[in-house]
Amino acid sequence: MTAKLPYDKTDPKSIERYAKKLIGKTFQDVLNESIYSNSKVGDESGKYGDEKRKGGLGNLLEKYYFGYEVNSDSEPDFKEAGVELKVSPYEEKNKGGYKAGERLVLTMINFNKEVEQDFYKSHVWEKCKLMLLIYYFRDKAIKNNLDYHIDYAKLFEIPEKDMNIIINDYKIIIDKILQGKAHEISEGDTMYLGACTKGATAAKSLVSQRYNENVKAKSRAFCLKNSYMTTVLNNYLMADECTDAAEFASEKELEAKSISEIIQDRLNKYINWNEDRIASKLGLDINKKNKSYEAIIVKHMLGVNELEDEKIDEFQKAGINVKVVKFKKHGKPNENMRLEDINFINLDKEPFDDEIKDEEGNDIGWEASRLYEILGNRKYLFAVFWEDEEGATFKGCQLWAMPDDDLEKVKAAWKELKIKIRNGVEFEVNGNIVTNNLTKSSENGIFHVRPHAKNSFYKFTDGTEIGNGNISDTDLLPSGDRITRQAYWLNRSYINSQLEDTLIRHH
């Protein structure tokens, strides 16, 4: 590679200007037009074009567009300019809009090395202080990776307000390492900066740790979480400048406390208050018949007037969703928690785990799934109420993320569910009652699939119709049958097992 570089490798803005010329091109265009290729384009097309090989497109741009060989993990890609190149996909959401296709991996965590406690002296800071983000659209209808279009190229510096949260995340991760608890690290521990598992079979990819010679830990890397990068994509790359979302906490507050601490401070002062007293204190006039009554109250308790979690800046970036847990009076069990309605056609189209790989070459079919997005990429703020004769009393809150071991169980159940759908859902008809073989609450102990519709209705491919509803109460299966609309539900027993004991109503 002796060709003169068409950009100033010491100037970030020059590198960015050159990168912007990629916009509108496919990766095949890059190969075809490359001044650095010493081999036949067809050879390289075969190397990078495998539909299952999602890794390598970043390497392609490094080599055939920017004109440098892939360097080591220890220094920025454009070291003279202090710029790190990050090439990543984005995708269309099932319900419209766009999301980051992957978390943004920054650098491996070396559990055998002495920990750097000052974030600004750390290797992770070197890898994220100035990034050139290049995003391409992962169109699921396109079979050859090289036909993906590059749509965005822009320098990105993490905003100062976000840095307060990221530094706190870093501290949480390194504290566990220093305590010899690297094996207990979970991506759910933190808000924006995560410690994700690495290795083609992460569960088997165990490494020793300096601070605890007795226990091995899963190999992990520092990353910016999917929820954070989705916000960067939508509010920075796709916009001329960051769009305004409702602010939860000021920069000054975040310098002094973590998001979790601020949430606790704001909600805990209402513990043991009746919901009517809270509403009165906050000047709220809400119809109690409104299904979102408690949820609206909780948002105002938090100090935000926005009901949608995705419109609250810090909640959007950290993937925090508020969920009300209500314990019934007279010893009645609390309800199962509905997560989201299922689109069976989309679920069937989701690749199995080994059918899609990330930029690092790791299997990510499960991580690209909608169910993982709901349970793996999100944190839940459980606001707990105990029902009584007067209404309900607020008993406290808990910020929760599903433990990694439980996510593995959900992954296995997700795979089984996909197989059942692909093979054809089995129905048993007994008069007007129809049962199926979809995931039951007893199967994995965590979640189940059951109807979420006012009326029951089924329409089978042989023309048989059963139920008191109509087509609008159904969802289409790949087989052509129509089934009463179904949803993912967290088991009530599982929710109780995850809640702190002081929040649980013992009858």
Automatic annotation (TrEMBL):
Question: Has keyword Hydrolase?
Answer: yes
- InterPro entries the UniProt entry points to: DNA_rep_MutH/RE_typeII_Sau3AI, DNA_rep_MutH/T2_RE_sf, Restrct_endonuc-II-like
What molecular function terms (GO) are annotated for this protein? DNA binding; endonuclease activity; hydrolase activity
Task: Describe the location of the DNA mismatch repair MutH/Type II restriction enzyme Sau3AI domain by residue ranges.
Answer: 68-169
UniProt keyword Hydrolase, yes or no: yes
Pfam families (alphabetical): MutH
Stored Gene3D superfamilies: DNA mismatch repair MutH/Restriction endonuclease, type II
NCBIfam families, sorted: restrict_Sau3AI (NF040973)
Name-wise, this protein is: Restriction endonuclease
Organism equals: Mogibacterium diversum
